[in-house]
Amino acid sequence: MAINFDNHRPIYLQLLEHFQAKIVTGSWHPGQKITSVRELALEYEVNPNTVQRALSELERMNLAQSERTRGRYVTEDLEAIRKLRRDSARQITENYIRAAHKQHLELDDALSLLKENWDKNEGGNSK
What we know:
Helices cover 57% and strands 8% of the residues.
């Protein structure tokens, strides 16, 4: 699955973000073995060194770990995954706020739109 990479940003960072999204959404679950560097490089049509750099960064962030002869695995540290989820949600929220400000929405209107649409989207709940 090739990604449409942004030529203005380092590819390894875009891969890192993609891998983080896989962890946040549960596509890569805690303790799951991560596909080999070579296979990922073929899948994303990038240099293996680029994949290695993204995965090394994932490890540095405590979101993956290597086992010398067995490969690399998604962390089982649920707190690290929760933090990633929260950081990701914070970024989405900040993007929404910036967009709402550009459209000169008042806070009450922005919150109202959020509440109105929360239950309409898959995965939303009214709690």
